[in-house]
Structure formats: structure tokens, C-alpha cells
Amino acid sequence: MTSLAAFVVLVGLVALERLAELVVSKRNAAWSLAHGGVESGRGHYPVMVVLHTGFLVAMLVEAVVRRPVVPGWLAWSMLALVLGAQGLRWWCIATLGRRWNTRVIVVPGLPPVRTGPYRRLAHPNYVAVVVEGVALPLVHGCWITAAVFTVANAALLTVRIRIENDALAALPRAGAPARA
Fold first, then answer.
1. What is the CA radius of gyration of the chain?
2. In this prediction, what percent of the chain has a pLDDT beyond 70?
3. Confidence tier at 172 by pLDDT (50, 70, 90)
4. What is the Cα–Cα distance from 117 to 1, expressed in whole angstroms?
5. pLDDT reading at 56 higher than 90
6. Per mean pLDDT, which range of 1-5, 92-96, 126-130, 152-156 is the poorest?
7. In whole angstroms, what is the distance from residue 20 CA to residue 131 CA?
8. Residue 150 has pLDDT above 90, yes or no
């Protein structure tokens, strides 16, 4: 079984990790914009911020209100998935370098990244988000948060991935001349 206190600490650590991501994102977005980057899909960004913030709050509220009893095998297996998702997320951040941020900003003239996890997956960061969206709440049996976030996030990712794919389609392909 997992304790409520341990779960609160875990969610707090994830929240701190998100703040670190925002620092990296802000710095990288400024770099991209300074290098001629063009932002797409600004309208969905506030929805994404509210959804992801609400996700962290909702699982804590659910844990306190429901006080679920969580088998150790579930807690530990979900924690392993959470840690794996964090590893994948930071691999994405490291691979994209200055081009990674939480917005959709494309710098004209830079080809799409096809290394690291992007060698095999078009959107590996979203794989990490999906896995974490299920696994983090389930570390403490917060299945309502996991279900609601998963459905809402699927709707958001449908929009986000379309915007991102459209923005990336404007980039030159490897070996192709840049568009004027």
C-alpha cells in the first residue's frame, strides 16, 4: 500500500519538475523567437496549462477525498511507468535542445529532428504525457483522475498534434532545398 503522504510528496516532485520544464521552455522559446521562430496554435495553449495544472490538483483532491487502498504491486508498477515517462520526456528535451519548449514554435531553415526518440516516433513527448497521465494518479489509486485526464488529454492532443504536424510540414526535408 502507498501512504497519502508519500503520494503528496511524489506529486509535489512532479510539480517541481514541471516548473523546471517551464524555465527551460521559456529560455528555449525566447531563443527560437530570436532566431525567426514562428508560433502556431496559441489558442489551445491556455487550455493545456489549465488541464495539466488541474491534473496535479485533481489527483491530490481525489486521494484525500476517496482515501483509496492501493495494492503495493499497483503502486510500484505505476511508479516505474512514471519514472520511465520522466526519462522519455527528458530524453526528448535533451534531443531537441534549444528547439524544445511547451509551445509550438518552428524556426524556419532548421530541418526536423530525426535523432534520439524522434528516430522511431513522431511525437515521443506525448507518449510520455499519456503514460504519465494514467500512471501517476494510479500510483495512489486515483482512477477517476486518470480516466478524466486521459479523455480530456486525448481531445487536446488531437488538436495539438494537428497543429504541430502542420507547422513541421513547413520545414524543409533532409536533402531538399529550403522553401523561400
1. 18
2. 94
3. low
4. 34
5. yes
6. 1-5
7. 20
8. yes
- Tell me how many helices (H) and strands (E) the chain has: 5, 2
Q: φ and ψ at 108, to 5 degrees?
A: -55, 140
Q: Could you give the domains of the chain?
A: 4-169 (1.20.120.1630)
| Residue 14 main-chain phi, psi, to 5 deg | -65, -40
Please, are residues 56 and 15 in contact by the beta-carbon 8 Å criterion?
Answer: yes
3 forms bridges with which residues in the sheet? none
Cell of 105: 514554435
Which of these, 100, 151, 150, 155, lies nearest to 124 by C-alpha position? 100
The identity of residue 133, as a single letter, is G
Rounded to the nearest 5°, which phi and psi values hold at 40? -120, 150
pTM: 0.91
Per-residue b/e over 75-102, b at no fewer than 16 CB within 10 Å? Answer: beebbebbeebbebbbbbbebbeebbbb
Alpha-carbon distance 74 to 54, whole Å? 23
User: Residue 169 is which amino acid?
Assistant: A
The overall average pLDDT reported for the chain is: 93
C-alpha 31, offset from chain centre: 20
